[in-house]
Each structure stands twice: as structure tokens, then as C-alpha cells.
Amino acid sequence: MITLTTFAWVPDFAAPLMRAFRVRWALEEAGLPYNVRTVTLGPEQKSPEHLARQPFGQAPAIEEDGLVLFESGAIALYIGEKSEKLLPRDRIARERATAWVFAALNSIETWALQLGIIDFFHAKEESTKERRPQVEKLVRERLGQLENALGDKDYLEGEFSVGDLMMADVLRILDHTGIFQDFPGLSAYKQRCAARPAFQRAMTAQLEGFRKAA
Ligand SMILES: N[C@@H](CCC(=O)N[C@@H](CS)C(=O)NCC(=O)O)C(=O)O
User: Fold this and answer.
1) Is ligand 1 within 6 A of the CB of residue 58?
2) Radius of gyration of the chain (CA)
3) pTM greater than 0.90
4) Measuring from atom 6 of ligand 1, which residue has the nearest CA?
5) What is the best residue among 58, 71, 77 to mutate for testing ligand 1's pocket, by most ligand atoms within 8 Å of CB?
6) Which site among 33, 56, 86, 162 is 20 to 30 Å from 127 CA-CA?
7) Selecting from 2.60.40.10, 3.40.30.10, 3.20.20.80, 1.10.10.60, what CATH number does the domain 2-85+198-213 have?
8) DSSP character string of 45-84
9) For 106, what's the count of Cα atoms within 13 Å in the CB-facing half-sphere?
10) Taking the domain 91-196, which CATH number applies?
11) Beta carbon of 22 within 6 Å of any ligand 1 atom
């Protein structure tokens, strides 16, 4: 059985966003039970035990049958291998789903995160006045391109896959901005993904875990 390592507690703004969520969601979609191990922010994060799981002292990480795996993208694909629902067996559909995982992490998350970091940690700094509009412009460009690629489909390739799981999770980084008002197609896509029972179960479990540790 997979053991997920997550933080025991994170600040409120980060609780729904913490990247262990995407692992929980993938596990729920795949219908796989899992154990949870918690690590505390601070010295335990940088302990040799945790660095052996996650070389940067971050979370999530997973372990199963002697495999220790870090990076949420790699973990999502690993779980995908166990479920056709996440990674289709068809060669082309499978590669396309994989491409969307990379697109979410490389082409969207990098920019969404920049905006998140500015808003969550540097909102009052002088440099933000100049930097934020530049970053927002780039984010908007990427969102427009993503919305075009989605078109009128329910999911990026028609059927839900691990690519949608990663994309929908990454888009949530921007929830605090209200930017999706200007992208109705993506807004509906996000809602569709968040309405999935597996998403709901994973979110309940994540928030409950943090609440108990608070
Ligand atoms: N690229 C990594 C990023 C992991 C990451 O940044 N995790 C955050 C929590 S969501 C973290 O560990 N933050 C604490 C830190 O960086 O010290 C992944 O996708 O797994």
C-alpha cells in the first residue's frame, strides 16, 4: 500500500493548495487506499529521514514496495500507471495525458505560482507594483491559450485523465485572484473537476488532517 508523506499542518491559506492534495486526489480517482505519514514544518523537514524521501525537504513524497518517490508530477504518473481512469492504455491517449501533466507543471504552474508568491508573501512590497501586472499579463496569456486548447470539451482530451487532475489542481493556485471570471471556459472546467467525488474525498481528508494537527 502507498504511504503518503505530507506536512502535519500548514497555514490556512495553503491548506487546500498543499501539493499532497493532488496525490490524494489521484489515489482517490484510482480507488487505492493509502497510509499517511506526517512531517512537521521546520527541523523535521530537513532531517536526514525526510531528506531521504524528498531531497529538498518538501512534501509530498510517497513510498511503496521499496520505491521512494518525490515530485508530485512523478507521483501522479506512478499512480496513473495503476489506473486506466488516469492514464489510458491507448498509446496516443496515454502520451497526450502525460503531456498535459508536464504542461500543467511547466507551462502553467510556473507562472501561477509567481503570482501566488507575490500575492501571498510580497503584496505590500514596492516592487510588487511593477512586477505584478507583468506576471498577470503572462498568466492571462497562458490561460487564454489553455482555454482555447480545451475548447468545448469537458476535459483536455475529452475524457478525464491525470492531465486534467494536474491541470485543475494547478489552476487552483489562482483562485484568490478572481481571474477566472474572465475565462468562463476554464471556470466551468475547474468546477467540473472539483465536483468529482474523488476530488471532494481528497479535499475532505486533507483539510481534516490539518485541522486535527492545528
Ligand atoms: N515540485 C515539487 C514542489 C513541492 C513543494 O513545493 N511543496 C511545498 C508544499 S505544497 C513545500 O514542501 N513547501 C515547503 C518548502 O519548500 O520548504 C512537487 O511538485 O512535489
Assistant:
1) yes
2) 17
3) yes
4) 58
5) 58
6) 56
7) 3.40.30.10
8) GGSHHHHHH-TTS-S-EEEETTEEEESHHHHHHHHHTT-T
9) 6
10) 1.20.1050.10
11) no
